[in-house]
Design goal:
The chain has 4 helices and 16 strands. The radius of gyration is 25 Å and the shape is flat. By secondary structure, it is an alpha+beta fold. It folds into 3 domains: about 80 residues, SH3 type barrels; about 90 residues, Translation Initiation Factor IF3; about 90 residues, Distorted Sandwich (Protein Yojf, Chain: A), CATH 2.70.180. Strands 4-3-2-1-5-6 form a 6-stranded antiparallel sheet.
Length: about 290
């Protein structure tokens, strides 16, 4: 015979133990300092806040850990006091390619310490005539560099090389050369898509549809936007030191099998890759 009393008792025990575990979890956080970094919370004991970093130990350990301040949103101390950090709040959010104006370009290496390295970026701009303004050509190169960074989801670029050649006019008998600017750098971000959250979002689903394509070629004057209808199939999702990559197939792109997850929300996610000097970003529908 089905024993209702026993079943009810077992259910009560499960709820009771769940409440105990939940209470213990809250107690653990309450008895610790909490450092908010990117998409995670670190329960710890903060030992020192230096000009560049925060040093802490994990519960039950004596090993001193360190995290750069520009990756920390805030610290909630066990006393209840909350300390925010201007270094992290100064970074602007990149939600899509057209947020490229939010990208910051720096040549100071200390400003990207602790940030996530997303990939190399480069751009080239050349005047259409020998009379093209050097400054306008330079501005176009910087704009293209920001666009390529935003295609990766980067909100900061460490500029590693800049070469600018001004207008060189020839003599009466020779022709001159137009202005040209070449830039190379590395794209970084203080926040990246969370691997576990993305896996929970897509669950076991493998087939999706790409609905928009952004394309920026090495010789392109601007990024192109096109509505598309391409099937995208995921075979695996990998967490590589915090950077989420996707193994899969995008219809019509037979030479590309590996994509970088740029961002996601409840209705879309974006992927990026570079092929033969051209940068691509595709928006994938979750509907």
């Amino acid at each position: 015979m089905y024993n209702l009393t026993t079943t009810s008792t077992n259910a009560f025990k499960r709820v009771f133990f769940s409440l105990i575990l939940l209470s213990a979890s809250f107690t653990s956080f309450a008895q610790s300092d909490t450092v908010f970094v990117n998409n995670q919370r670190i329960a710890c004991s903060v030992k020192e806040v230096t000009p560049d970093a925060v040093q802490y130990t994990l519960p039950g350990e004596d090993v001193l850990n360190s995290v750069y301040k520009n990756t920390i949103q805030k610290i909630r101390f066990k006393s209840g006091r909350v300390q925010t950090f201007a270094e992290a709040t100064s970074y602007k959010q990149i939600t899509g390619v057209m947020d490229y104006e939010n990208v910051t370009i720096t040549s100071v290496e200390s400003e990207v310490r602790g940030l996530y390295k997303l990939g190399d970026v480069s751009s080239k701009a050349k005047g259409t005539t020998v009379y093209s303004s050097q400054e306008r050509v330079k501005e176009r190169a910087y704009r293209k560099l920001k666009i390529q960074a935003a295609m990766l989801g980067a909100n900061t670029v460490l500029l590693t090389n800049q070469r600018t050649e001004g207008n060189k006019y020839g003599s009466y008998f020779t022709s001159g050369s137009s202005a040209e600017t070449n830039l190379t750098g590395i794209g970084y971000s203080n926040a990246v898509p969370n691997f576990d959250d993305f896996k929970s979002l897509i669950k076991d689903r493998r087939n999706f549809m790409a609905i928009k394509q952004f394309r920026l070629g090495a010789s392109s004057s601007d990024v192109s936007q096109d509505d598309v209808n391409k099937q995208f199939t995921i075979s695996d999702v990998i967490n590589e030191n915090g950077i989420v990559t996707i193994n899969g197939e995008l219809k019509g792109e037979d030479d590309v099998k590996r994509f970088q997850l740029v961002n996601f929300d409840n209705s879309h996610f974006s992927i990026a890759y570079k092929q033969k000097g051209t940068a691509y970003n595709f928006v994938i529908s979750l509907n």
